[in-house]
Amino acid sequence: MVDLMSPAAVANRLEIDAVLCERDALRFTPAGIAMLTASVRHESRQMEASRARSVEFELQAVFAGAVAERADRLPLGRALHLAGFIALRRRGGKVVALHVNEFLEIDS
Length: 108
Fold this sequence. Notes:
Layout: H1 7-10, E1 14-23, E2 27-28, E3 34-48, E4 51-64, H2 66-72, E5 79-88, E6 96-105
Parallel strand pairs: 4-6
Antiparallel strand pairs: 1-3, 1-5, 2-3, 3-4, 5-6
């Protein structure tokens, strides 16, 4: 049985390079926190079972606070290095998303 308080049980960090392909309008929570929901697209080649595999997918991304305000100014098609954690997109929902804590623009 896994100890739920061990670092292995609580680790939830994802870093990924992706392109901003869609975004909703910037909104604010009742508490005044800026929120932005977007879609990002990742394409790469990864090794699996000693073979190269093409990986392509879209992922929902949620930005909050100052990170949301920065992301709202990005042009669609911009390459980004995103870092954050995976969680439900909305409380009580079923769709998971990358909740972005920080990002860097990638020069292409």
